Amino acid sequence: MKDPKKTNEKLDQLESHSTSNDQEMLTTNQGLKINNNQDSLKAGDRGATLLEDFILREKITHFDHERIPERVVHARGSGAHGVFKLTKSLAEYTKAKFLTEVGKETPVFVRFSTVAGNRGSTDLARDVRGFAVKFYTEEGNYDLVANNIPVFFIQDAIKFPDLVHAVKPEPHNEIPQAQSAHDTFWDFISLMPESMHMIMWLMSDRAIPRSFSRMEGFGVHSFKFINEEGKVHFVKFHFKPKLGVHSVAWDEAQRISGVDPDFHKRDLWESIENGMFPEWDFGVQLIPEEDEDKFDFDLLDPTKIVPEEEVPVQLVGTLTLNKNPENFFAETEQIAFHPGHIVPGIDFSNDPLLQGRLFSYTDTQLIRLGGPNFHEIPINRSIKTVHNNQRDGYMRQQIAKGKVSYEPNSIGGGCPFQAMMSEGGFTSHQERVSGTKVRQRSESFVDHYSQAKLFYNSQSEPEKMHLQNALIFELSKVTMPEIRERMVGQLAFIDRALAFKVAENLGVEVKELEFPNQSLPADSNHVDLQSEEREAHTKISGALSMQNTIKDTIKGRKIGFIMANGADAGAINDLKTKLEAENAVVEIIGPSMAPVKTNDGSSLIPKHSLTSTASVCFDALFIAAGEDSTKELLTPLHKHRVLNFINEAYKHCKAIYFGEGTEPLYTNSNVGLKQHEDPAIVTWDDAAGADKFIKAIAEHRVWHLELERNAQN
C-alpha cells in the first residue's frame, strides 16, 4: 500500500518545479523583465536586426531546440529530386551563374511539407505548405525556403515562437493535432491584426491543395538581386504550376484524411514513377532599388504581396521533379534548408522576419541533426568541394589533411585563401546603415487590412463561400465566446458582410474593436466600422483567384472507372486510351478486389474496391458501360456503396460520365435530380461524350452549382 505522506511529498516536489504565468510579467530565462516582446532590436525601425539582441536570440534558440529529433515545424514532408532549367537570362539583374546562362541546368531537391502537424499527421490538414528548394549550383548551394502562400502571419521573427506555440496542440492536453481550430490559435490571431491578410489565405482553398504539383510556391520575402556592376533590384520569387492551381473542398479533405492520409505524398511519388513529372514555371518580380518606396505598402513587410498587376511576374525558368528519393530518411528527412544559404548575386533585405530566420535555421539544424556537420550528410553536400579551416564536431566525415587549421598561415602556403570578387568571392551588398538603435515597428508596417481586403474581394463567389465556411468551422471550435467575438471584430475591418455572416453562425455580435497591438499609433486604436474609405476599397487582383488558373490539361488527373462483371470492354478501352493519351491516370474500382470479367471474356484487375477507397480520392468518375455490370452494382450488396460513391462525387462538383446501359444508376442517384444544365455530367446518349468528359475534367469543378447540390444532399 502506498504511503500517502510520501505521495504528498512527491506532489509537493513537483509543485515546487511547476509555474503559472497568471498575473506575472514577461521575463527572459535569466529573470530580466521584458519591455517589448513585439519587435526585435534594429538599426532604425526599417534597419537590419542586430546580433546583440539577446532577447530575440534566447527566445529563438529555446524554440529551435524544443523538439528532438523531429522538426518543430514542417515535420511532415515529401520530397523529390529534379532539375531547374533557365529559359531567360537574368544577367542584367544578378550575377548568380545559375540564373545568367540560358539553357543551364541545375540539379535540385524539393521538399514539400505541412507546418503545424507532426510527422504522423495527415497531408490534408488546413495549413500552410512549405515549398523548399535546394539548388546545387556550381557556386555552392542556394536554398529558396518558400511556402505555397506568399505572405506570413507575423512581421517580426521575435513573434514566431508565439505563433507556433499558439497553433500547436494545447500544452495541457496535447489536443488538437495538425489543426488551427482551437482556442489558443484564434486567441493569438485575434490579438494580432498583422495576421489578417494571412488568415484570408489560410481560410481559403489555397490551404487545401489538390496536390503539390497544383500549388504555387512563393519566396515570401523581398530579396535582392545584384548584378556585376553592383546595381540592386528587389526580387520576389514565384513558382507557378504548369497544371494550374487547384484545391479540394474542405469536406473532401476531411474524408481523404480518413481514407488516404498520405494523399499528397502518394500523388507526388506515383506521378514521378509514372513519368508524369511535376513542373513549375519559375518567375520573378523585379523592383529597382530606387523604386522601393513607390508602393502603398512596405516592401520589407512579409505580410504584404506585390500585386502582379503592379509588377508582372517574369517567367525565366522551369522546375521539373523527375526522381523519387531512394531512402526517405536519408534524403527527405535529413535535408537541411536555410535561407542564409545564398550565392553571389543574391542578398537579403532588412525584412525583420527574414533577418530572424537567418539566425534560426542554422540553430535548428544543430539540434535536429546532431551538430555542426549536417552539411556533410550526402543530401546536403555542395557539388562544389568544400575547403575551409572548420574542424571536428559530431559526425565529422571529411578528412582534412595537413597540420594547418587556421588562416592566415604560411605553413600551408596561405591555403585555403580568400577569393577575390572577380574569382567569385561572395561580398555582401554595401548599403549605408544608420539609425537609432530601437525595438519598434516601422509605421510603414501599420496597415494590416488593405491587402486582406484585396484578397477577399478578388475571390470568386464559390471561393468566398468556402472561406466563410472555413472561418465558421474554425471559430465554432473555439470554446471562449470573447475570442470568437474579438475575431469577428477583426473580420469587420476586412469585409462587413463576411463578419456578419460569420457572427450569425457563431452566435456573437459584430462590435467595434480596439486594437491591443502596440505597433499602431496611439490615435489609431479605434477604427470606425462605418469608414467610407474602407467600404470604398474594392480593388481586385485576378492572380489571387483560382478561378483564373490553368484549365486546359488533365495531366495527372486520376479517373476512377467503376465496373462489375459484364462491363463493356470496348467502351472501357476506348475511353481509357483517350484519357491516357492526355496523360491522365485510370484506376479500376470493382465491387471487390476480385478480377472483373468483361463482356468479351477478358479480365480486368481492380486497383480498388468500393469498400477500400472513396470518390474523394479521384478527380472524376466513369460509370462503365454494360447492362449486366449495372445490374450487379444495383444488387443489395453493392447498391448503397456505389450510389454513395456517385452522390459524393456529384456533391463535390466533379465530372461523371455514365456509359451505355447505366441509366438505372443515373436515375437512382442524386445526379438524376439535377435542376440546371451541368457541363460536368456526361451521359450515354452524347455522341461527343468522351471529349466533353475530358473538357469537364480539365475545368476541375463546377463550383457555381455547389449550393444547389448541397441542398439536394
UniProtKB/TrEMBL annotation:
Segments of skewed composition (Basic and acidic residues): 1-15
UniProt keyword Membrane present: no
InterPro entries reported in the protein's UniProt record: Catalase (IPR018028), Catalase_AS (IPR024708), Catalase_clade2 (IPR024712), Catalase_clade2_helical (IPR043156), Catalase_core (IPR011614), Catalase_haem_BS (IPR002226), Catalase_immune_responsive (IPR010582), Catalase_large_C (IPR041399)
Cofactors (names): heme
Region named Disordered: 1-24
CDD domains from the UniProt entry: catalase_clade_2, GATase1_catalase
Catalytic EC class: oxidoreductase
Domain Catalase core: 27-415
GO molecular function, one term: catalase activity
UniProt catalytic activity: 2 H2O2 = O2 + 2 H2O
Known EC number: 1.11.1.6
Keyword line: Heme, Hydrogen peroxide, Iron, Metal-binding, Oxidoreductase, Peroxidase
Keyword Iron set for record: yes
PANTHER family noted in UniProt: CATALASE (PTHR42821), CATALASE-B (PTHR42821:SF1)
Function: Decomposes hydrogen peroxide into water and oxygen; serves to protect cells from the toxic effects of hydrogen peroxide.
Family (UniProt): Belongs to the catalase family. HPII subfamily.
UniProt protein name: Catalase
Species name: Chryseobacterium geocarposphaerae
